[in-house]
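Submission sheet (multi-component)
Chains listed below:
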Amino acid sequence: MFAYYFRLAWLSIRKTPMMSALMVLAIAVGVGVAMTTLTLQYMMSKNPLAHKNEVLYSVQLDAWDPDQPAMNTTTHMPDLLTYQDASALLRSDIPLRQAAMHRFGGAVQVPDSEVPAHLADARVTGRDFFGMFDVPFLYGGPWSASADMEAVYQLVLGRALNDRLFNGDNSVGRTLMLDGKAFTVVGVIDHWELTPKVYDVTNGPLNDVEELFMPFGLHRALEISTWGNTNGWSEEEQNSYEDFLNSESTWLQYWVELPDAEARARYQQFLAGYIEQQQAQDRFQNKREHKYALSTPEQWLAINRVVSNDTKVLSLLSLAFLLVCVVNTVALLLAKFLRKAPEAGVRRALGASRGAIFAQHLIESGCIGLLGGALGIGLALLGLTGLDRLIPGQVDKVAQMDWLMLLAAVGLAILASLLAGLYPAWRIGRTNPAHYLKTQ
Amino acid sequence: MWQTGPILRALWRNKAGALLVIIQMALTLAIVSNALTIIDERETMMNRPTGMADKELFSLTAYPSVKAPLDKGKVAYDLDRLRQLPGVIEATLINQIPMSGSGSSSGFRIGEAENDPDAQNTGANIYHASTTVLSALGLKLTKGRDFQPSDLYVWGGMGQADAPVAIISQRLANELYPDQDPIGKTITRGNGQMEIIGVVETMLGAWPEWSRAGNVVITPTFSTNTLLPRYLIRVQADRKAELMEQVRDLLLEIDPNRVILSMRTTEEYIHRVYSRDILMVALLKVCIAILALITALGITGLTVFWVNQRRKQVGTRRALGATKAAVVRHFLVENGLLCGVAMVVGTGLALALNGLLVQHYQLPPLPLPYLLGSLAALVVLGQLSALAPALKAAQISPATATRSV
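Outcome: structure written.
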């Protein structure tokens, strides 16, 4: 029966090529536009750390101006921590893992190598970073634990940089010059991407993962300053690097891993205690309600509005757009089916049930939907490529469909066309056979 | 003459089709008018002048392979050699690239009053650059004087230090010293004071989407702690690509050990900094174009269908003496009536959608001209779409009426 309906549908589509093409086009364009924007929204709102959402937390402390809350965050607390607070928190043994971090970079070169110096993006962080964010190692592993507190010249390379500098060999134990200082490679991580880059949305949620990682204990030895935001409110004199470290400037991301509710409660207590102790030293003097915050990756992405309003507006408008395309298809299908009413009348007279006529026409609209969907996926891929061309390097990570989105596109197309076919098919199913037999 | 009565009654008998056309046109109106509002908002923002000679500028970072304090003599030598390249207009060392989306800002107060709670206080971008910065960027000085070589302030300490003199943007001057001549007045940053010696007409600064974009302070400061020595170079616009190569070669010739990074034109930075808006505008424009096309094709398709359905009636009317023009008019009036209803419904939908966008996504309210413009465009679109089938209907021979009843 199905096969027969499909043949009828195909015959009908071929009989009115212009009108069918118009309907296929309408569905295709609707699906294409909707899928382009929905893909952007879907990829932006992905939480790549969903599997650790219950245990990872971004830490915020409100060490900001007592008289004015920090701007630009939903929490009204600074996104970043001061160095003095970060170092104090690092001393806690409650979290299973924890790391303070910031963006950095430097010129890297292998001694006696032909490869020209290259300015690499780096992350200064703790050894726990790799375990917290499930970073896969290709060779070696993280640096020694002491490197988080004191100057140890070790680093971990990303795979691409290892390919560039060492031709992809196992470079563990090799020496690397970074800004003229010798470092030992202790590990090489495998290809690793985090989209959006949850641990540092301040510098851009679509930025690439850093090319190399260096230990947190090096700050004083190298007088490291951040390649990211430094925000301050206090008018304090900073005449030395030590002044900068002890200042109220905020510039560090801080993440902790708290395996269960008990650890979380203990850590909250620890933070409250730390703030109280600091208040005794004339810090945290604001009268605001919340003095600290722990946010899961999901909350952190929401707080920092990683899915922008623009993306949401586009998704909304594109769905309205798809609706227009569906309405358009309903009108055209209705016109087309009503024109075929005599045919349906004859079939009815020959004994076809109303349900059979309905099914036949619904299948016909489904076929149009399938064709439109296939074309729509093509259009969406074209659209995403176009966006990538329009603003190179800014959306490449989110302007791509995964298999789930492809499935969703097909589903959307069929749903749209069935929705479009429902009313016209019902109308034609109600054809009165007698009426058409008379005129024939 | 217009026969609205019979047309309306005919439409009433074919409710479903008419209703679908109305819904489609109303939705189109709602989407298009709101999309136009968003496009206009973004384009107005992107078209703001940066104050600089955008087309003539590019920048680079001359990163030393070994970290060391920046040498004033070496920078001066670099800049001198760059200026000697034919086609180079001016060059400057600068702490942040305007329009790059990356930069520094601070709070600024008027006067010397450190603890005066009533003193005006606002945020502004702060630029440290060579004394040639104004002509290098192409900024227009409207009041006061330009920097002189003797204004250069060399600073080797930590933290922020500014030269004792500054040139500020008119926007910042308006905010700090409304209705006063800012020349000779003082602005305070932290514990340091600067005397305003000049005002530039416009300079957009580092982040065009910042609420204080356009508040700018420029001081002739040379900081030896500069980690990323950046050069901004102004050249003849038509020779930019070629000069970018020459500049790279020249800088490497002077010091082969440094790394030349991030060599980009200011126009590239502008494109990058507005990338989200460019994306939004492009997507919305494509949507509007396709939507208009789909709606037009839909109306044409339906009118063709209606014409075919009514071949006999049209033939009969022609046989009874109706002119071709009357037939065309019939279909156009029919379309016009549908359009009219769609406009009323669509206006309501457009305002509702706009209300949603304003409330949840901080978008601008729908201006009346955009609504009226979209309405007019919709009428034209509808009439044009119905015209071809209507003209075809006029060709229906009166003899049709006599064929098989």
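Remark: The CA atoms of residues 35 and 402 of chain A lie 12 Å apart.
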